[in-house]
């Protein structure tokens, strides 16, 4: 009998705890909903966007549109690896030698 009462008490306590945890979780979700839940209606509305509208959307962080993105590609700089520097020096030397030789032959 004592065991039965103890088990009933434990079951009641566990049930109360689970109910409290569920209520707490619901309260937290109402106070701070997930971003996914906040934008769910907007995501559903995306199926009405035409392909032309979709293509004309600007890139993220690019208010000016696609032309600005093309301009930024020209401004990018990538450093040349050190292994290419000796070859460039040789080419410069041969080019300069050819120019000097050409100018010298014109003077004669």
Tell me about the biggest sheet? Answer: none
Helix/strand order, N-terminal first: HHHHHH
List unreliable stretches of 5+ residues.
Answer: none
Q: How much β-strand is present in the residues? A: under 5%
Average pLDDT metric:
75
Helix content: over 70%
Number of strands: 0
Termini separation comes to 126 Å
Radius of gyration: 37 Å
Give the count of helical stretches: 6
What structural class do you assign from the helix and strand content? mainly alpha
Features:
72% helix; mainly alpha; single chain; 0% strand; 108 residues
Any overview of this molecule?
It is a single chain. It contains 6 helices and no strands. The chain is mainly alpha-helical and 108 residues long. It has a domain at 1-32. The protein is elongated.
What's the SSE blueprint?
Blueprint: H1 2-31, H2 35-38, H3 40-45, H4 51-55, H5 66-75, H6 85-107
What's the quick description here?
The protein has 108 residues and is mainly α. The protein contains six helices and no strands. The chain has a domain at 1-32.
């Amino acid at each position: 009998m004592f065991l039965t009462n103890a088990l009933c008490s434990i079951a009641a306590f566990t049930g109360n705890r689970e109910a409290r945890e569920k209520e707490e979780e619901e309260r937290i979700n109402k106070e701070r909903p997930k971003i996914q839940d906040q934008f769910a209606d907007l995501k559903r509305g995306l199926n009405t966007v035409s392909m032309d509208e979709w293509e004309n959307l600007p890139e993220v962080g690019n208010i000016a549109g696609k032309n600005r993105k093309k301009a930024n590609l020209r401004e990018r700089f990538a450093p040349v690896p050190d292994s290419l520097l000796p070859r460039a020096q040789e080419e410069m030397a041969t080019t300069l030698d050819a120019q000097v030789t050409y100018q010298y032959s014109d003077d004669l």
